[in-house]
């Protein structure tokens, strides 16, 4: 992996979810080097919306993808937000 690579998270982990990042979300590597097995990854939303997060992701927890589609991130984010609402109601 290298800076500017498009990547996809391939695991669901609580430490990523705390920042709003979930399995299937796509981002791009924003630093030239990994640090202790982690890459700094930005997870954008589509258009002019604020980014979901920029966090460190363990290399083995993601894979390189040919292109990134931020709309996928919005769909996954919406699913988790909907689930949170259901749990708060019950």
List the helices and strands and how they pair.
Layout: E1 6-9, H1 14-17, E2 26-29, E3 38-43, E4 53-58, E5 62-64, H2 70-89
Antiparallel strand pairs: 1-2, 1-5, 2-3, 3-4
Can you walk me through this structure?
- By secondary structure, the protein is an alpha+beta fold.
- The protein has one domain: SH3 type barrels.
- 27% of the residues lie in helices and 26% in strands.
- The protein is built from two helices and five strands.
- Strands 4-3-2-1-5 form a five-stranded antiparallel sheet.
Short characterization:
By secondary structure, the chain is of the alpha+beta class. The chain has helices spanning 14-17, 70-89, and strands at 6-9, 26-29, 38-43, 53-58, 62-64.
